[in-house]
Amino acid sequence: MASAELRQIRRRISSVQATKKITRAMELIAASRIVKAQARVRQATPYVEKLVEVIRNVSRATGGASHLLLERRPVRTVGVVVVSSDRGLAGSYNANVIRLAEANMIDHRRRGAEVVLYVVGKKAQTYFRFRGWQIERAFLGVTDTPGYGDARAVANLVMDAFATGEVDAVEVYYTRFVSALNQLATRMELLPISPPEDGEEAAAIAYSYEPSPEEILNRILPRYVEAGLFGALLESSASEHASRQRAMKAATDNANELVKVLTRIANQARQAEITTEIAEIVGGAEALTGSYE
Amino acid sequence: MARNFQVDVVSPEGTIWSGEATFLVARTTEGEIGVLADHEPLMAALATGVVSVEDPEGRRTSIGVHGGFLQVVSNQVTLITDRARIAEGGREEAAQVAARLAEIEPEADA
């Protein structure tokens, strides 16, 4: 019977509308988080700039710095840090960064280098475990709003591994926040540190150092690694929210479209039902008048 | 006459304090150091302790700091630190804040 079909369509409409409410809410939440995440990226910039400035000045004063974290050696083992999200529904955000990382990891293996894998975020953990990569360490629950302590935890781990020779280089795969519409999966070489380039040849300032320049460099280089990682986490977080907002906006638009189409089908079904009913009544009446004659 | 210089206290989470100051005291790894205007260029590593800044109106701000760096160049003082917090209650509270900051260790969450 036609009314059963109609009922089914109406049920689908209300289900799509319920889904739409959820995706719309997620879209709005993500949108408000982007603003916050972007602000945090901006707030971290002065710190990093000052660090770079100090490192530049100090390495100039020490005449070509040498430090364990600056040491380049033949790469037999590569530490790989992949920054993903804990939750899905963020479009191609996770897929892009994971794909880039895995391609490079396979490349390393082909060249005969071992890969030690550190992951941030549940999505990368699940993926790489499924693909049979051994995960050295996973950091979960940090990508939504990464704190500096999270960056420090990851940085300490990879710096230790680098210092003990467990790994000869560390690279980070994260998603750069280019703009609200454009996020780019990116590879960053974290260790060994490539000293910041001497930009403009500013006259070296004759600082007095307390304690020695070497000691200051010893203390500041680990901070530089932490800051680099912190930046990567913040950018990834902003990118995640932007991707999610776009994905959820698309989902909401699709739901609207679907409701439109389903409503049309429902109207058609209703019309068909009415037509059938009228035809039945007219038919019945005809039959009755016929019998009286 | 007390002259002013610019002070910025920056951390990865944002700028903690910024403004004009007439006097600044910080604790470096070697000992306490006071900075007035026209101090010579200096680069120092900070220890755990209190940084006090006095602004031109004579108000004192105490900041608890654990580690970081102090840079002085041409009346620009920059404190670069990843652990610092302003203490409202003066020096004693700032010292406590610094001690608490020193205890924070990267908690290992697997």
Q: Which CATH class of chain B?
A: Mainly Beta
Distance between the termini of chain A: 33 Å
> What's the gyration radius of chain A in Å?
30 Å
Radius of gyration of chain B: 14 Å
Spatial ordering of strands, largest sheet of chain A: 3-2-1-4-5
Query: How many beta strands in the DSSP annotation of chain B?
Result: 10
- The helix-and-strand class of chain B reads mainly beta
Largest sheet of chain A: 5 strands, mixed
Beta-strand segment tally of chain A: 6
CATH architecture call of chain B: Sandwich
Structural category of chain A is alpha/beta
- Corresponding CATH superfamily of chain A: ATP synthase, F1 complex, gamma subunit
| Mean model confidence by pLDDT of chain A | 87
Which word captures the global form of chain A?
A: elongated
CATH homologous superfamily identity of chain B: F0F1 ATP synthase delta/epsilon subunit, N-terminal
Mean pLDDT of chain B: 81
Largest interface: A-B, 40 and 30 residues
Helix segment count of chain A? 5
Can you offer a commentary on this structure?
The complex is a heterodimer of chains A (293) and B (110). Chain A is an alpha/beta fold and 293 residues long. Chain A has a single domain, classed as Pyruvate Kinase, Chain: A, domain 1 (3-Layer(aba) Sandwich), CATH 3.40.1380.10. Chain A is 62% helix and 15% strand. In chain A, helix 1 runs antiparallel to helix 5 and helix 4 crosses helix 5. The mean pLDDT of chain A is 87. Chain B has a single domain, classed as ATP Synthase, domain 1. The termini of chain B are far apart. At the A-B interface, helix 1, strand 3, helix 4, strand 6 and helix 5 of A face strand 1, strand 5 and strand 8 of B. Strand 6 (208-210) of chain A pairs parallel with strand 5 of chain B.
